[in-house]
Amino acid sequence: MKVLFIGGTGNISTACSCLAVETGIELWHLNRGKTGNQIQGVKTLVADINDRAALEDVLADHVWDCVVDWIAFTPEQVQRDIELFSGKTEQFIFISSASCYQSPPDSPVITENTPLNNPYWQYSRDKIACEELLLKAHKDIGFPVTIVRPSHTYSNVIPIAIGGWEEYTAIDRMKRGLPVVVHGDGSSLWVLTHSEDFAQGFNGLIGRQESIGEAYHITSDEVLTWNQIYQQIADALGVEAKLVHVTSDRICRYDPEYIGPLLGDKTASVIFDNSKIRQLVPDFQCTTPFAEGIKTTLEWFEADPTRQTVSDAANKMMDELIASELA
């Protein structure tokens, strides 16, 4: 099977690339050739995704069993993909987002039939518009789209709301015995999925014609409170968890950039029903509990001090929110 990943070396897609190679897929990456993260066994097409002429040139002699775009975020980018790959692939997988689901949800139990509506986050609204465009192309011209909606998936990122992700700020504070900010009262329910577990479900969709015209989320079944998430991070570090709870509204007033990621994503409780993906990929099973997965993430950060980016702005924000909360 000949598969093209547009992207393929990111937080989620690296594990999918590695598993694809392990299972015998002829995997190609399309990228600018500037990343140092090369995966053994992957062939590379070098082009800037925003250079249409260069794209058409490097793709001219290829047809694909499946194309996956990991880095399309707007309808304009998706329209480009429709034009490039119509008649050139048997399947096109669009990476959407579980943040597209109704926020706040009417029910914490999320299925693929949960409405798509996020008034808080432009990122999510753009992804919804992409889905709509692709499904229209499927209806009108038979474009063979499969939609995948990852939720909060981690590997080499710290999966918390403030001072995390590619930053090391919150981890640095915890190691120094300083308190960190937790949004809300920490009791809302959340789901974190390790990228290697996600890959098991995702790669099971590649080449599956039954998935054409359908949408799937792929997540862990482990449900944790945010208090438990922070406590398990502290346990992995071998430190005491010093948590200060600040309402999401207050955090967003301090910095409106958090409106989407908090009010549009991490504030409400969610529990994902994975019945649909398991109907098609019955062997899909997440086997990495967060308490174990976060240990490997922290080991990755600690293996190279240059990865341990500490943000002065995030530190200042937490210090001021904590001081105000405790006053």
UniProtKB/TrEMBL annotation:
Domain NAD-dependent epimerase/dehydratase: 4-216
Any matching Pfam family: Epimerase
Gene3D superfamilies, per the entry: NAD(P)-binding Rossmann-like Domain
Biological pathway: Bacterial outer membrane biogenesis; LPS O-antigen biosynthesis
Lineage top rank: taxon: Bacteria
Family (UniProt): Belongs to the NAD(P)-dependent epimerase/dehydratase family.
Protein name: NAD-dependent epimerase/dehydratase
Protein source organism: Teredinibacter turnerae (strain ATCC 39867 / T7901)
